[in-house]
Every structure is written in C-alpha cells, then in structure tokens.
Amino acid sequence: MLNDAAGNAATYGKLTLEGCAGAVHILFATLARCGSDDEQEIRAAYVAGIGGVLGKYPDYSTYDDWPQRTSAALSQLDQLQPQAKQKLIEGLVRTIANDGALKVEESELLRTACALLHCPMPILH
Predict the structure, then answer these.
(1) CA distance 28 to 61
(2) pTM of this structure
C-alpha cells in the first residue's frame, strides 16, 4: 500500500538520483505503463522521462508486483536531495507529456508521488 508511514517525514534527504537508479527506474516504468497499452509508446515515454533524469539508466522492463515495488521505490526516493526531487518530478512530467495525452492513472500516480516525496504537484496542461 502506498502511504506516508512517517507522517512528518523530512522534506529533504542526502541521496542522489544515481544512487537510487533502481528506484527511479521502477517509478518511471510504472508511470510509462499507466499511459498506454502500446509497447512502443510505453518505451518511448519511459526514455523521454528517465533520459533527462539519469545519464545511464536500465532498459525498460515491467513487473507483476509493481505496486509493492513502486511503494518501496517512493519510500527510498523521499530521501533524495531537494534538487534531485525537482529533477525527478520534471522527468515524470516529461513521461506523461510524451504522447500529448493525460490519463487519469498518470495524473493519480504523479499526485501520489508528489505527496509521498513531499513535493508540490506541478500544473499539467
């Protein structure tokens, strides 16, 4: 379950994006899958977002246990440095915007990520 177990968690941390590459990958893979059923579109959205966040990133892959993996990834990513969180959120928005359409599932995952990362929700057009 995705929840904010810490309640008053700090809004900053010391981890880097590169140090959390596995968690970053899981979050982007989950979000990309929310936006389409077409494998080519999913991979394009994944690369569009994660490519601006990590210099080297894992190839796109999917997981049957994505809810648990995504929850664990968000817990780890909450410990990112503030600038890293901003860069991560910007990448998530690029993933969503890649196909020019906003699905409810994408919006809700972004809203959840922002809440659990203690970041403001960006305005989506």
Answers:
(1) 10
(2) 0.89
CA 46/CA 96 separation, integer angstroms: 9
List beta partners, residue 15.
80
**Alpha-carbon distance values, 82 to 25, 31, 56, 95, 121 (Å):** 19, 21, 21, 20, 14
Phi, psi of 69 (to 5 degrees): -65, -40
Length of the chain: 125
Q: Which two tokens stand for residue 30?
A: 């989950």
- Per-residue confidence in pLDDT tens, the chain, 125 aa: 455 555 555 556 899 999 999 999 999 999 999 999 999 999 999 999 999 999 999 999 999 999 999 999 999 999 999 999 999 999 999 999 999 999 999 999 999 999 999 999 998 76
Give just the sign of the alpha carbon dihedral 58, 122, 38, 100: negative
Asked if 72 and 36 touch (Cβ cutoff 8 Å), the reply is no
Check if the beta carbon of residue 81 is closer than 8 Å to that of residue 31: no
